[in-house]
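I am writing to request your help with a piece of structural work I have in hand. I am sending you one protein, given as its amino acid sequence and as whole-number tokens for its backbone shapes. Kindly check, if you would, that the fold set down in the tokens agrees with what the sequence suggests. You will find the record immediately after this paragraph:
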Amino acid sequence: MLSCPYCQKPVTEDALSCQSCSLTIEGAASLLGPVPLLNRGLTDTTETLSGRERRALEGAMTRFEKIHPASRLNIVVRSFEPEYNLATHLFWLFNTAGLSPSESQQEKNQDILIGVDPHQQRVALMVGYGLEPFLKKEEIVELLETARPLLGQGKLAEALQVVIRGLHPLLQQASIQAHKALGLSGMASVAASPGTSF
């Protein structure tokens, strides 16, 4: 079961809006305003990251995508409106900012968007609908919690590296679960090996 990014209540995969709070992509856009121009990959509108830190993160992102070729990783570092939770902001950006290729169908989208507000020390991530059923919310929350102390110390690049490293085992486990769900349990051990994804 998926959850609404705004109210955190369960929603069905095919729902066009949240049954509890009525959030839609259009509703998020009316709350949050015009979609900012973002680059595919790493965008840091706060200019917090040094050139060396950017290069190291871009290298980690490239390695991530080689290990998990079905997933594209995007990172947005910016000042987000504090009135709304970060998950709502990421839902809005994920669905409207053109970070995923247009041919990536919603139900098959396995992309990941990490959002960080270094000034408010907030970090969150959103995964595509193709990944969401196979990732446990508790594990994602636990991963993000490991990064928060680093944000509190002003170590943005280190916090992002921790999240990227922590995503590897989560995606490998998700791959095993997806193969089992599809009745391909014989392939699960292969799917969990580095260099593959579902």
